[in-house]
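Researcher: Here's the sequence for the chain we discussed earlier.
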Amino acid sequence: MPGQTHHMPCDLKYVGHKSRAQWAVNPSGTAVVFVHGFGGSSTKSWTNFSGLAPQRSSCVGVDLLFYGYDSIGQHLHPVAADLRKLLDDLFTNPADSVINRTLDIGYYRPNSFNYKRIVVAAHSSGAVIARQSLLEATQAMAPWSTKTRLVCFAPAHHGVRAADLAGECFSLLKIPLIGSVATLFFKTLSDLKGDSPLLKSLKEQTSAAISSGAQHLVAKNVVFARNDPIVETVRFCVDPPPDFIENKTHFSVCQPDVDFLDPLQYIEGALQ
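Model: Thanks. This is the structure I predict for it:
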């Protein structure tokens, strides 16, 4: 592909926690916001996207934002509110409030720049955060809410097996954790119990909103690793039937490489 399609990745110091962005040189008015899951980070959870996406013709003008947050020590609802604020800024005043803070003045975008569509790509507990954000925007009748699309990788809509998730994330520390202990220490996990008030409310309110016509709350794609031991793979509301990927884990199912382009292709489909 001729020429440089994207600027070098940069820090988004005023957005979330260690968030990053890769702005398109010639923006098309579309963006992807990546939201990681429990124990993840803004970039490590989405390994290779920043290198592979700019090489794809469908992503030449697409802005890439890797949203970071404290995925262990805080509850999910406040994070959802922060993500909703970011989406609101991106749709209502993107150049001034977010983009031009990170670009050299010669590359500033005009105040007239706006997004026509933003795809939210979310992994594990990040899917709960993304759902809650989009639901609240819809309930608040934000005019931009219908311009969003959602792609979910190993979503935790129906809860997680706390011991397995914490054990996977902290295996390098060789600290044994059982589910009951994990939920005491990690606030995020208490929100991800299958019977948590947050998950119950999210399902009930999303179902009601979709029944009232909010079709943008239906995910474009849902993807699981086959035999994922960490999350329940039950369909959420009227989402499409999930796809199951062989030979991938709960964590690697959202990480493309040159021999596994599926995660990138799912997002490309939502950009159309």
